[in-house]
Each structure stands twice: as structure tokens, then as C-alpha cells.
Specification:
Chain lengths: ~650, ~550
């Protein structure tokens, strides 16, 4: 025979085995039922006023839910009553206000968008309430997890101490802020929504205008497009060390053969291939070439946590050149590049870093083979990921615009987030800067920012004959992974704060350059909302027209990008049909969504502290394309 | 950045990198840059200053008195600008998409900034003051454009003087017409299009200025080919792929805001119970009654045409004809095309707007001055010299070498005889123009600077406000409408055209009995046939007092 207490104990035990979020929901649900019961008792049985009954019910229910959360959901937490109960109640009150704000805003939406709500959805006040409660529930869960029952709140504290507890102070301040915001929102929901959307439109306009102006920099005047003079080449003089970090790269041989094909004298450059000690295939490949050529050196890196900056740092002590260049293992170097860099470095003695262009070449589809034994659904997923190429043209274009224009703008303004390939740094400069940051996901950008902050001048050059050829990521998924890494790296660089030592004007540019990927990702999503609003917003005509402006600027940007794309395909002798143009234009919003997904992904990864290096896989697809470089093509075929 | 001695190992940023009083140094640098800029353009700037003084005096003296209040459109645009400033609406009556509202938006902005409606004697006077500024800006742009077209200083000055001092120009450019504003923006677009920098930014601003011109008066849109041609002539292979989309984006983006405005208001497509952009445009394009042919001496178009010829045959006839030889000079071709297009539109028949000639004048002046200048220099179909210096890069990997721009190489120099003939012709034409101008212009300009034909309208308004009740309903023209409203007429006056043509007004006033007074200038029988209710008001009213220029105040006698 079991007593009711034993039943309860059993129930608690069973509940504790559920996921914590589920336990939290059950506690909340029980709290709601208790509240309903108390309301019934107080109002119908005891005859209390509805308001008084509500307040008493709320206090009792909050206490009850706190008990459940403290002893069931977070039973492993050792915080005292004094430390958890006040913070818990504060958070609860904040959540009530939050629910009210969401409720008011949702109702406000309906008034603001009459045509939308009439034709698509009618927002019932119950639905608005449900949305408010849902928001409050999520808020409460996060608050319990990260504030009330967090590690910091574990130590037992007297209630008086709770007043001086920073968490508590922050909580109260938060409640006041949320509370006053709620009052404003509940009083003027439409004005708040309108103000929000106008602000949103303004941000989008700024993003679009900044994007456009930076994009146009390289083409602003005809003279600016021709800054490389290939006829004026100095005699070989400087020694150049090229570092090639390679990791599971079957196409390494091709890369190295290209480097060895350079028109620069063999005794004036060395190639340092860095392979991991867990990658014997690549090492074997590299050793084969090392044995045939005197200027190739293979370095085996045994550092446990692999990354590109780690590999670069491993090779740095072996570099003997005046200039140290970085070559990605899958890229094709132009044969004239080293000669040009030599002349540039001799001519521009004041400059410490020389950045060349990198260009993705495969703007069209590659063949797709249905995976063996895959079902229809898996095949479809695989096809979407690996078989579709709608995004490749945009990807190629991004590189073109970045190296022809954006990076040169950055060099002009003295703040250069460097690229990771075809970068040449004077060895002395690199030593003075202290080498690469092995913990950074975008060590290239980081080095550039550090150099800019310390006044090192960077020269950016771009010419179709000097560009390093690369390929787009193999799959759409790989693109997202790559972007995630870049964006995470930008956050790292931003947080590291080297840019803060720049003079004021440049500091602003630094913030712009480092945060722009996120704003672009945001604008990508927001522009869709803006279109809906432009058609449905019930507001003064002037304000509605204002929500149209971001869209107009975006369309203008697409027109400009199309012009740049035409030039890109022409410069490299690539085919460009109407279909390519159409695909470039139509893919814009979807590509934006991909970037937005990467932004969200990188934010989450950074929030979770995941900073491991995710490598992009390469298959050497640009092999199949005649990219117009007459001298490179036979070499390519020989290499493959 | 000027790092001569590089110590990248220094972790701290070197504070000496930025001068101590950076703002002051920057200011000094800017001052130096400005004085350099001025020094380089001393001659041109002096000429422009002189032109401003001369044109400003001729256009400014007596600007309110002549022409008289002969065209109601002036009053309409000013009233609409008034409605923008004080009532925050596009027009003082239902906006019918007759013209885009950029023109009177500019007027309203100037009124708001200067408070002109409060201190000028009449509202139209304030509008004409804006026109004076617009004209002076246009003169500067004309000079700059002429110089950028490779026309010499003397001929450029002559072009501006032709454009400004022609009696036809004084007559039309003084009136508060949208065409004047549109021409100013159009000249700005051409000026930026002809920029020798050939930058993407100048293509972008060209598009934006052309959009502003179309926003001011939609009819200039048909000059788009000329602007495009000029921009194309002054563009470069190396950045054209970006410059042209920039031009189109700014143009289409700017103009589309007008269409979006109509869409937002639910007034784009025709529908019951509201005005619409499409139906207004269809009416303007297809249904508007033709003014007849300029070759038919009984038509309205012929009358207007002859009025222009009599006003100034020099600029109107000789200048327009100069478009033909101007086609021979490569750099003048877009200008010639603009002149030719407008002549074709004039000959074509259809509706001929009163101020149609306004947009012809700058091109006539530029073509005439440009052709004489080219003849004097015996320089045919060559590019401006600065374009001849340009280099061209073919940005392909195979052939990316710097090649000299061979296109611009001048041909063989003309023979001595050809030069002599050419120079003699230029001299002869110049002398003829000067004689013709000396014979026909002075008396007309003196008349324009001394006559007050606007007195009747202003006196009638003032007398009415002094002697008649403020709460009476007045039927009047738009020139007087704004003055009555501004000076405290409590009952809203009725604009005579709306009494018959606006259903809302017709319903509110309810026929001639709803009117108490009429303050009107001379009306033609054609007007009265189109406005039967106004004719009834005249039939049922007696003259209270008459004023000069045919103005009178009438009181409606009700049964």
C-alpha cells in the first residue's frame, strides 16, 4: 500500500527523468491550474474582488512554480531560497510585462495592416494573448536557466545580500526597462510599430547605400580600373617564401606544379607545404614533389587542434624569404604573380603587406550524380545541396567585387581585413606583428586588422592576369559552413578589439567592415518584410513610400552587380548567357537567405563557444573550365 | 597613410600620426584646395559672375509686372505649393495626376525656407521669385554645359546671353511654370552627363537629375535619348558596365517613386469614384483635344507658334534651325537631337502646351553658339580634346594591354581655303545675329522691364478684401485664389475651372446660385463655352468695380 506522499515522490522521480525544458513546462502548467483553482475559490466561494483575487493568486502561483522549479526542474541546483526566490519573482514580473507588450503589439499589427489582417489573417485577441504567453514562457525558461538557477546564482546568500547582488540589480533594472517600454507600447502600439519599421527601413537603406558605394569604388573613374601596369616589371630580387597549408587535399599536386611553373627564378622562391601528422596521404603526395624540387620543403605539424593559422605558424620559423606569401592548397597561382609582387615590393618600400586578387571561377553548374542506393527524399536533399548551382554565380561575383573594389576601398581608407590567399607580407613586418593569431577563425582578417591598427600600409592590386583562381565550395552546405566561419571570425576580431587603437574615423570604418556581413544578412530577411509592409501598411503615404526606398536601392544594386558580373565573365573569358544573368538576378533574395542562415548559425556557434575550424572541401572543379588564361590551361591539364 | 619609417613592432599607436589640431589643419587644407580650385577657374568664374549680374538684372527688374496675370497655370502651381506648405496636401483641390508634383514641391520648399508667401505682394510674385533663382541657376548650368561640350568661352557666354536675354525667354522664364524648373534639372543632368571625369557618380547624378526633371514636368521624358547619348559619348569602356546601370537605376528608381505614390494611394489604375494616374496619362497622351497644326493658320497651335516667332525670331527660328548644322559636329549631336526632337513634336500636331517653347530655348542657344564656334575653329565632328587623350583598356585576360584610344584621333587638318571659308561664315553669322538682336531685342526688353501688366489683378484683390464681406463665396482664377486665402477670406474661394469640371465642387456649390462674387479677368468665348456655369454666373451678376487689364469684381444677383 502506497501513501499519497509516495505517489508524489514517484511522480517527481519520473518527472526528473524528462528533459529540463519539459519539466519546466509541466511546472508552469501545474502553476496555471493552481491559479485557475485559486481564482475559482477566491471569487466564487470567498467572494473576493477579481483584482484582489488575481494578485493573491499570482503571488501564490509564482511561489508554487518556484518550488517546482527549484526542487524538481533544477533539483541539482544548490542555491538558497534567499538567492533564487527574489530573482525568480523579479523575472516572473518582467515576463508578465513582456507578455503584455507582445499582446499589445500583436493587436497593434492588426490595426496597422488592415488589408493584410482582413485578407490573410484576423488576429483574435486570444491569439495575441497566446503569443504573449508563449513569449513569456520562453523568456522565463531562459531566465531560469541563465539567471535564477545559473552557476553564478549558486552561492547561498542572505536576502539582504540579494539587494546588492549584481544579478538582482540587473534584474530590477531590466524589469523597470521592460515595464516602461511596455507602458509606451501598450499606449501607442501603432506609433511604436511604425517607428520600428521606419528605423528598419532606414537601416536597410544605409546598408544598401554603403554596399553600393563600396562596390562602385573600384569603378568610380576609368583611371581607377587600371592600376596595374604589367609592362613595368623589375628584375627578380626579393626572395619569396610561399606557405601552402594542406589538409586532405588530393589536388595539392596540381597546386604545387602551378607554383613551380612560375616565371620567377627557382632560387628566389621556396614552397613550404604544411601537412598534419594524421594525414599521411597528403604528406606522401607532398614528399613526392619535395624529392624532385630543391625549393620545396614539407613540414609536418603535430599540433593537436588543426587550423590554418596553426599551420601558418608552424611554417613561419622555416621561412627565409624577404616576403612570405600564403597559398591555399586548392588554388591556381598565376605564373606572372611573383614577378609582379617582386616589383611592387621594390617600388612600394613603405608598404608592408601586398594583397592580390582571388577569383572563384565555376559560376555554372557542375555535374550531379545521384548517390547510390539513396531513396527519393535523400536524393532530393542531396541534389539540392550538391546538385544545384544557382548560388555559384553570386558567389563568384562576390569575390570579383570584393577584390576589384571593396578591398581597394579598404586599403585606401587604411583598414584592410586581408584575404586568406595570395597575401604577401614582408617577413620583418610579420615578425614585428608577432605572426598569426592561432586561435582566430579568420586569421587573415585578424592579421590585416592588427597591421592596420599599427599603421602598416597595405597595397591591394587586381589584374585578370595576376588573379589566383579558386573554386566555389562543393555544396551549398559547404558554403554555409564557410560563411559561418568567416562571420564567426569577424565577431572574434571585433571582440578582440585591436581596431580600437585606430584613429576615430578609421574606427568607424572598422566597425562598418566587421559588422557589415551581419547587417547584410539582416537586410536580406528584412527586405522581404519590407515588401509586404509597403503594400499593406496603413500609414501616411510619405512613410509608406519610405518603406519602398530600400527595395528600390536593392534593385539598383542588383543592376550594378549584373554589370560587374558581365565584366567578370568577359575578363576571364567565361561564358555568360541570358540564363546566367537571369539566374544571378533571381537568386539574389535566396542567396541573401543563405547568408542570413550563416549569420544565425555563426551567432549561435559563438554564443555556445564553438570555435573549432570547419574546413571547406574542394574537388577542383574549375579544372573543367576554360578560364581564358592561355598559359595556365595546358599546365592545368598536365597537372590533372 | 604616410609611414616612411615603419616600426610595426610598436604596439601602441603613434599619436603623432594625426596632427595635434586635426580639425584646424583639415580646415586649412580645405581652404587651400578651394583657393586652388578658384585660381584654376578664374576666367570662367569671372564670366559666370558677370553673366549672373546681367541676366539677374534683366530678368529681375519688373519681374512681377511683365508678363501680366495672363495665364492661370502660374496661380495654380503657386496655390498647389501653398496647399503643400499650409495644408500638407498635394493640391488645393483633388490632385488629378495632371503633372507630377516635384515642381511645386520645390516651390513649396522655397516658400517654407524663405517665408516668401508672407512678404510678397501677391502669391504669384513669390512664385516668380523662385523662377528668378531657377533662371540664374540655369544660366550657370548653361555656361558649364557649353564649356563641357567643348565650346569656347566667348561662344559659351553668347549661348547664355541668347538663352537669357531673348524676349521670348524673358517672357516665359519669368512666369511660375513647371517647364522652367524642369529645364533647370534637365540642364543639370546634361551638365553632369558631359563630365570629363566619366565617373560612375556622374552617371548616377545624371539619372537622378533627369528623374528630378521628369518629376517637375513629365514632358521632358522624351528628351531621354539626348541625355543618354551625351552620357554615352562621355563614358569610358573601362567603367561603362557599371556607369550605365547606375544611370538607369537612379532614373528609373527616382521616377518609380511617383508611380509608387499612386499605387500606395490606390490611385494607379482607373476605378469608380477616384482619380488615377493611368487615366490621367491616357487623357494627356490620347484624348486631349489637339491644338491643330502649326501649318493651319486658323488653329490655336498656329497662333501660339506665330506669337513665338514674333516675340523672338532670332532664337526661336534661327536657333532651332541651327540644330541641322549642329549634327555635323560630333560633340553637339545630342544637343542637335534635342532640338530636332522638339521641332518634330511641334510639327506633329496634337496638343501644344502654352509653355512648350521653354524647353526648346536652351538647345537652340547651344546649337547656334556651338555651330558658330565650331565653324570659327574649323573643327568638325571631333571629340573634345580631353577625350582624345583617353586610353582604353580591354579587360580580358588575353588582351589586357593598354592601347591608345584611336577613335578620338582627329582627321586630316582642313585646308587653308576651307578654314577661311569656315571662318568667314562664322563671322558673317555672328554679325547677323548681333545685328538682328540689336534691332529687335532692346525695345522688347525695355518693355519687359518697365511695364506693369499685373496691377489690375492685384488691385482687384485688394479692393475686394477692403470692401466686401469675408464670408462671401468668391469665384475667381488661381492667381487671385491664394491671395484671398492667405489674407483672411473665411469662405474658401472657388477656382473657376473647378466649378464646372470637379464633380465634388459642383455638388458642394450647387450651380451659379452658390456664388456671391466673381473676381475675373478677361475670359474668351472658348473658355465660356467650356465652362457653362461660369457663363451663368456672368449672366446673373453685375459689375461692382472695374480695374485695369480687364479685371472686374461682379456681384451675383440672386432671385
Amino acid at each position: 500500500v502506497s501513501t499519497p506522499l509516495q505517489y508524489l515522490g514517484g511522480a517527481v522521480k519520473v518527472t526528473r527523468r524528462l528533459p529540463r525544458s519539459m519539466q519546466f513546462l509541466i511546472s508552469g502548467g501545474l502553476g496555471y491550474l493552481l491559479g485557475a483553482l485559486l481564482l475559482f475559490l477566491f471569487i466564487d466561494k470567498a467572494g473576493l474582488s477579481t483584482q484582489a483575487a488575481y494578485v493573491i493568486q499570482a503571488v501564490v502561483t509564482f511561489g508554487f512554480v518556484w518550488i517546482l522549479n527549484r526542487y524538481v526542474t533544477w533539483h541539482d541546483h544548490t542555491g538558497s531560497v534567499a538567492s533564487t526566490l527574489p530573482t525568480f519573482l523579479t523575472c516572473r514580473i518582467a515576463s508578465v510585462l513582456l507578455a503584455w507588450a507582445v499582446y499589445s503589439l500583436t493587436i497593434g499589427c492588426q490595426i496597422l495592416l488592415p488589408s493584410l489582417s482582413a485578407s490573410v489573417v484576423t488576429i483574435h485577441y486570444q491569439a495575441a494573448n497566446a503569443l504573449g504567453v508563449a513569449t513569456a514562457t520562453v523568456f522565463n525558461y531562459l531566465a531560469c536557466k541563465h539567471i535564477v538557477f545559473s552557476e553564478q546564482n549558486r552561492a547561498a546568500r542572505a536576502f539582504t545580500n540579494a539587494v546588492t547582488n549584481p544579478t538582482m540589480v540587473a534584474g530590477v533594472a531590466g524589469v523597470i526597462a521592460v515595464g516602461s517600454a511596455t507602458i509606451v507600447v501598450a499606449s501607442y502600439p501603432m506609433a511604436v510599430l511604425l517607428a520600428f519599421w521606419m528605423l528598419n527601413a532606414l537601416v536597410m537603406i544605409l546598408v544598401a547605400v554603403f554596399t553600393a558605394s563600396r562596390m562602385l569604388y573600384g569603378w568610380q573613374t576609368p583611371e581607377r580600373t587600371t592600376h596595374v601596369d604589367l609592362t613595368d616589371i623589375a628584375a627578380p630580387n626579393l626572395k619569396i617564401s610561399l606557405i601552402v597549408p594542406a589538409r586532405h587535399e588530393p589536388i595539392l599536386a596540381r597546386t604545387l606544379n602551378h607554383l613551380l611553373d612560375s616565371d620567377y627564378p627557382k632560387d628566389l622562391y621556396e614552397i613550404l607545404v604544411v601537412v598534419g601528422d594524421d594525414d599521411p596521404e597528403t604528406e606522401l603526395l607532398a614528399r613526392g614533389i619535395e624529392s624532385q624540387h630543391g625549393n620545396v620543403l614539407v613540414i609536418v605539424d603535430d599540433y593537436p587542434r588543426r587550423s590554418k593559422p596553426r599551420a601558418l605558424e608552424a611554417a613561419r620559423p622555416y621561412c627565409s624569404g624577404d616576403l612570405i606569401g600564403i597559398v591555399d592548397a586548392e588554388s591556381i597561382f598565376a605564373s606572372k604573380l611573383l614577378s609582379y609582387v617582386n616589383s611592387l615590393a621594390l617600388e612600394r618600400r613603405e608598404a608592408g603587406i601586398f594583397q592580390g586578387g582571388v577569383q572563384l571561377m565555376n559560376h555554372r553548374a557542375q555535374g550531379w550524380v545521384r548517390p547510390e542506393g539513396a531513396g527519393r527524399l535523400r536524393s532530393l536533399g542531396n541534389w539540392f545541396n550538391a546538385g544545384t548551382s544557382w548560388w555559384r554565380a553570386r558567389n563568384c561575383l562576390e569575390y570579383y567585387v570584393w577584390f576589384v573594389s571593396r578591398l581597394r576601398y579598404q586599403a585606401e581608407t587604411g583598414f584592410v581585413p586581408l584575404g586568406g590567399n595570395t597575401v604577401f607580407v614582408r617577413r620583418q613586418t610579420l615578425e614585428d606583428l608577432g605572426g598569426w593569431d592561432v586561435n582566430c577563425l579568420t586569421e587573415d582578417c585578424e592579421l590585416g586588422v592588427r597591421a592596420s591598427a599599427r599603421g602598416v600600409e597595405t597595397v591591394v592590386f587586381h589584374h585578370p592576369d595576376l588573379v589566383t583562381l579558386e573554386e566555389t565550395p562543393d555544396t551549398l552546405g559547404a558554403l554555409v559552413v564557410q560563411r559561418t566561419r568567416w562571420m564567426s571570425g569577424f565577431i572574434q576580431v571585433y571582440r578582440k578589439g585591436e581596431w580600437r587603437s585606430l584613429p576615430r574615423g578609421k574606427r568607424l570604418r572598422a566597425v562598418e567592415a566587421l559588422t557589415m556581413p551581419f547587417f547584410q544578412a539582416y537586410a536580406g530577411i528584412a527586405v522581404v518584410v519590407s515588401i509586404v509592409l509597403a503594400f499593406t501598411l496603413n500609414a501616411p503615404v510619405g512613410l509608406v513610400l519610405f518603406t519602398w526606398v530600400p527595395l528600390l536601392v536593392t534593385v539598383a544594386n542588383i543592376a550594378l552587380e549584373h554589370g560587374a558580373f558581365k565584366e567578370f565573365t568577359r575578363s576571364f573569358g567565361l561564358p555568360c548567357s541570358r540564363m546566367d544573368s537571369l539566374r544571378l538576378i533571381v537568386s539574389t533574395p535566396f542567396y541573401q537567405l543563405v547568408l542570413s542562415a550563416a549569420a544565425v548559425r555563426s551567432t549561435i556557434r559563438m554564443a555556445r563557444g564553438q570555435t573549432a575550424w570547419e574546413k571547406t572541401a574542394h574537388s577542383g572543379r574549375h579544372l573543367d573550365f576554360n578560364h581564358g588564361l592561355g598559359d595556365a590551361l595546358p599546365a592545368l591539364q598536365a597537372a590533372s | 597613410m604616410t609611414v616612411t619609417e615603419l616600426h610595426p613592432g610598436d604596439t601602441a599607436f603613434d599619436p603623432a600620426f594625426e596632427p595635434e589640431f586635426a580639425p584646424l589643419a583639415r580646415l586649412r587644407d580645405r581652404g587651400r584646395a578651394l583657393s586652388n580650385w578658384v585660381a584654376l577657374r578664374r576666367t570662367d568664374l569671372s564670366i559666370m559672375f558677370g553673366l549672373l549680374v546681367v541676366c539677374g538684372l534683366v530678368h529681375g527688374i519688373g519681374f512681377d509686372g511683365y508678363p501680366g496675370r495672363i495665364n492661370d497655370d502660374e496661380g495654380t502651381y503657386v496655390a498647389q505649393a501653398y496647399a503643400m506648405e499650409f495644408r500638407h496636401s498635394i493640391a488645393h483641390y483633388t490632385y488629378t495626376y495632371d503633372h507630377p508634383f516635384g515642381g511645386w514641391l520645390l516651390m513649396a520648399a522655397s516658400f517654407t525656407v524663405t517665408g516668401a508667401l508672407h512678404w510678397t505682394s501677391t502669391a504669384v510674385t513669390a512664385g516668380r521669385l523662385v523662377m528668378l533663382v531657377v533662371h540664374l541657376v540655369s544660366c550657370l548650368l548653361m555656361y558649364g554645359l557649353a564649356r563641357r561640350l567643348g565650346i569656347g568661352r566667348v561662344a559659351s557666354t553668347a549661348a547664355v546671353l541668347l538663352f537669357s536675354l531673348s524676349p521670348l525667354a524673358v517672357f516665359y522664364q519669368r512666369m511660375a511654370f513647371l517647364d522652367n524648373i524642369a529645364v533647370m534639372w534637365l540642364l543639370a543632368a546634361l551638365y553632369t552627363a558631359a563630365s570629363s571625369r566619366r565617373s560612375v557618380a556622374s552617371a548616377l547624378t545624371t539619372g537622378a537629375f533627369l528623374a528630378a526633371a521628369i518629376w517637375s514636368k513629365e514632358t521632358v521624358a522624351f528628351l531621354l535619348p539626348c541625355v543618354y547619348w551625351l552620357l554615352r559619348q562621355h563614358s569610358d569602356d573601362r567603367n561603362r558596365r557599371l556607369a550605365m546601370p547606375a544611370f538607369w537605376s537612379a532614373l528609373v528608381g527616382g521616377v518609380s517613386v511617383y508611380i509608387l505614390y499612386a499605387i500606395t494611394k490606390g490611385e494607379f489604375l482607373p476605378g469608380p469614384g477616384h482619380v488615377s494616374l493611368v487615366s490621367s496619362a491616357a487623357w494627356q497622351l490620347f484624348e486631349r483635344p489637339s491644338s491643330g497644326s502649326v501649318f493651319d493658320n486658323t488653329s490655336g497651335a498656329y497662333g501660339l507658334f506665330m506669337q513665338w516667332v514674333h516675340s523672338d525670331y532670332l532664337l526661336f527660328v534661327v536657333g532651332s534651325l541651327a540644330a541641322v548644322p549642329a549634327f555635323a559636329v560630333r560633340r553637339l549631336r545630342p544637343i542637335a537631337l534635342a532640338g530636332a526632337l522638339q521641332i518634330i513634336m511641334l510639327m506633329r500636331g496634337g496638343y501644344l502646351p502654352y509653355a512648350y517653347v521653354t524647353a526648346m530655348l536652351p538647345f537652340a542657344a547651344l546649337a547656334l553658339a556651338g555651330v558658330v564656334d565650331a565653324a570659327w575653329r574649323a573643327d568638325h565632328s571631333y571629340l573634345p580634346r580631353r577625350l582624345a587623350r583617353s586610353t582604353k583598356r580591354v579587360p580580358t585576360a588575353e588582351a589586357s594591354v593598354e592601347v591608345d584610344h584611336e577613335v578620338a584621333q582627329p582627321g586630316a587638318r582642313p585646308s587653308m581655303t576651307a578654314r577661311t571659308v569656315s571662318r568667314t561664315a562664322a563671322l558673317l553669322v555672328t554679325v547677323t545675329i548681333m545685328v538682328l538682336a540689336a534691332v529687335s531685342w532692346p525695345s522688347k526688353l525695355v518693355h519687359a522691364m518697365t511695364t506693369d501688366d499685373s496691377a489690375g489683378s492685384a488691385q482687384a484683390t485688394q479692393w475686394f478684401l477692403d470692401h466686401e464681406p469675408r464670408n462671401s463665396v468668391v469665384l475667381t482664377d488661381d492667381n487671385i485664389w491664394t491671395d484671398l486665402v492667405l489674407r483672411g477670406q473665411t469662405a474658401e474661394p472657388i477656382w473657376l475651372f473647378k466649378l464646372d469640371l470637379d464633380p465634388a465642387v459642383k455638388a458642394r456649390v450647387g450651380g451659379w446660385q452658390g456664388i456671391d462674387y466673381a473676381i475675373l479677368g478677361p475670359l474668351t468665348p472658348t473658355d465660356l463655352r467650356a465652362l457653362p456655369t461660369v457663363a451663368l454666373v456672368l449672366d446673373h451678376s453685375v459689375v461692382v468695380k472695374s480695374f485695369s487689364n480687364g479685371y472686374s469684381i461682379r456681384k451675383v444677383v440672386k432671385p
